[in-house]
Amino acid sequence: MHAQAAPLTLPSLREACSQCNLRELCLPMGLSPAELDQLDQLVHVRRRVLRGQHLYRCGDAFESIYAIKTGFFKTDVLLEDGREQVTGFQMAGEILGLDGISTEKHTCNAIALEDSEVCVIPFAELEDYSREIGALQHHFHKVMSREIVRDHGVMMLLGIMRAEERLAAFLLNLSQRFLARGYSPTEFNLRMTRNEIGSYLGLKLETVSRAFSRFQDEGLIKVHQKHIQILDVDGLKKLLSDRRT
Amino acid sequence: MHAQAAPLTLPSLREACSQCNLRELCLPMGLSPAELDQLDQLVHVRRRVLRGQHLYRCGDAFESIYAIKTGFFKTDVLLEDGREQVTGFQMAGEILGLDGISTEKHTCNAIALEDSEVCVIPFAELEDYSREIGALQHHFHKVMSREIVRDHGVMMLLGIMRAEERLAAFLLNLSQRFLARGYSPTEFNLRMTRNEIGSYLGLKLETVSRAFSRFQDEGLIKVHQKHIQILDVDGLKKLLSDRRT
DNA sequence: CGCCAACTTGATGGCTGTCAAGTCAGGTGG
DNA sequence: CCACCTGACTTGACAGCCATCAAGTTGGCG
User: Fold this and answer.
1) What integer best gives the mean pLDDT of chain B?
2) pTM of the predicted model as reported, rounded to 2 decimal places
3) Which residue in A133, A141, A150 has the most chain B C-beta atoms within 10 A of its own C-beta, making it the best mutation to test that interface?
4) CA atoms within 13 Å, Cβ hemisphere of B90
5) N or C, which end of chain A has less CB nearby within 10 Å?
6) Distance CA B199, CA A5 (A)
7) Residue B208 CA to nucleotide D2 C1', Å?
8) Distance CA A7, CA A96 (A)
9) Contact at CB, B155 and A160, closer than 8 angstroms
10) B46-61 tens-digit pLDDT
């Protein structure tokens, strides 16, 4: 039994999907106004998760998926010996919990990296609605497929890229996702530690730190602790395509 | 324009899902007899793919997913510089093409490693049937989720395991999948080259070869070219849990 | 029989991990 | 308000695992 904030219905703070400014990134994407009203019936519980708390844990029964309303998460898998593989970082508008569908138990941990709020989407009900709303069904399939494609990208990172390429790809990916959410793509604060970045990229924290320093020396970025400023986007992109042979 | 075997309807060879001995591994799993009859309406085209041929290529328009009836495939992504990341090996009963849903274009290549046959499942129709048959919808979601979970496993391989651990995990995974299909879990032929194994595991072919030799020296397996015999399953498993700290 | 791709094995080198020391920033308590 | 403490980060020195390069072997196929 582990401490978790109990799910809370928040009628006063209620913000329907139809009003949500993330709806173009999240599950409601592409739905008609009438369909959006239906979706509002489905998503009626939100849950706060404070920094450091688990949204769910490996082994927990799977009942819902979660749409991030505000905040930032990581998902990870732990080995018996305590080592951690971070499988992803998720931000507002993205969906968490898809891993649990297959076995009806979650197969990874989801941990808030800052105080966050998620929309709880009971999965059985989502399937019910999906059978009625073709657009919702199709969009949900796209969300799952996108996760598979994203995972393939991570495999490429881990399988064939060198340390600096991995970090450049990581920064460019973050940059793009901040841009899509209306934030600056060139200046942002990292929510995760060097250790977590390293775990995601298959590197040790010292290697991450060294690569950051090297990028800074080369004038590609400015880095001060968690604050990142990208000075030369094209330079970073070049790191990905320029491979010495 | 690339050479591909044209999709063929094979009424003479027709084997309905309801009759298929793979149905407990594949999409029809858990359907009632009546629902199986419906599914038979959906899956009415099969396609032969000879060894070395592509089932689909990166960039191809996405229209269908594919259930492997016989044979063996790999999926990969190529970098501009020609380097390859193998993202998976697929065998009978497994589903190919899920990557294409998200962008309506395939994002990887699927290549037969031996002469194979697949059932073509038009995706739009699958979604239609899924809205009618709840069990089909749910099982399809499980299949996609399983792929996500599998990918997380590969990330762990690539992110935190050493060469010999990766290869041990790879062999045990193959062994398990052969067992599930009624083949010997301890003796089988690899369908892929050392180079392809290496690409999947983030290693060079020489490292794969050396690890095989080492396993043989230690009495864990017998290996002769593509023929593998597992002599000590527990020994291989121990390689995964025993991590020097 | 000869060719070629796949594979094995050895020698060497480099990238990244490991170990260690020191700096920095934020939070707490006196 | 400041000293202290702790976790996060940076940087250096060294080592090890795996990549690279190279040579030779095997097996399949025309």
Assistant:
1) 92
2) 0.93
3) A141
4) 29
5) N
6) 43
7) 59
8) 16
9) no
10) 999 999 999 999 999 9
Same domain, B196 and B134: no
Q: Assess whether A29 and A122 both reside in one domain.
A: yes
Q: Say yes or no: A142 and A206 in one domain.
A: no
Q: Which of A104, A120, A155 is the last residue of a domain?
A: A155
pLDDT > 70: percent of chain B: 93
Strand D reaches within 7 A of the B162 CB: yes
- Residue in B with minimal Cα distance to A243: B81
Domain count, chain B: 2
Q: A82 CA, D5 C1': separation in Å?
A: 26
User: Cβ contact (<8 Å) for B145 and A79?
Assistant: no
Asked if A223 CB < 7 A from strand D, the reply is yes
Whether B182 and B104 map to the same domain: the answer is: no
Residue B64 has pLDDT above 70, yes or no: yes
State CA A158 to chain mean position distance. Answer: 18
Domain of B130 in residue numbering reads as 5-155
* CATH code for position A183: 1.10.10.10
Burial of B228 (0-12, 13-18, 19+ CB in 10 A): buried
Q: How confident is the model at residue A242 (pLDDT cuts 50, 70, 90)?
A: low
Are A131 and B134 in contact (CB < 8 Å)? yes
Please check whether residues A9 and A66 belong to one and the same domain: yes
Closest CA to B150 of A123, A139, A155: A155
The last residue of a domain, from among B155, B178, B213: B155
- Give the pLDDT confidence of A56-69 residue by residue, as tens digits: 999 999 999 999 99
Q: What confidence tens digit (pLDDT) does each residue in B66-94 have?
A: 999 999 999 999 988 778 999 999 999 99
Residues lying close to strand C (Cβ under 7 A), chosen from 124-163 of chain B, are none
Tens of pLDDT, residue by residue over A134-184, are 999 999 999 999 999 999 999 999 999 999 999 999 999 999 999 999 999
pLDDT at residue number B13:
53
Residue-wise burial string across B145-158, b where 16 or more C-beta atoms lie within 10 A, e elsewhere: bbbbbbbbebbbbb
Assess whether A67 and A187 both reside in one domain.
no
CATH of the domain at B66: 2.60.120.10
Give B-chain residues touching A148 at CB under 8 angstroms: 98-99, 102, 144, 147-148, 151
Report, in ranges, which bases of strand D sit under 7 Å from a protein C-beta. Answer: 8-13, 17-22, 26-27
How far from the centroid of its chain's Cα atoms is residue B9's Cα? 24
% of chain A with per-residue pLDDT over 90: 83
B16 pLDDT exceeds 90? Answer: no
**Domain co-membership, A145 together with A34:** yes
CB B43 within 8 A of CB B90: no
Q: How far is CA B130 from CA A125, A127, A131, B64, B94, in A?
A: 15, 10, 7, 14, 18
Contact of B97 with B66, CB cutoff 8 Å: yes
> Testing the interface with B: which of A156, A204, A243, A244 to mutate, by most B Cβ within 10 A?
A156
Instruction: Tell me if A146 and B102 make a contact (CB, 8 A cut-off).
Output: yes
Chain B nearest C-alpha distance from A234 (Å): 17
- Distance in angstroms: CA A54, C1' D6: 23
Same domain flag for A228 and A172: yes
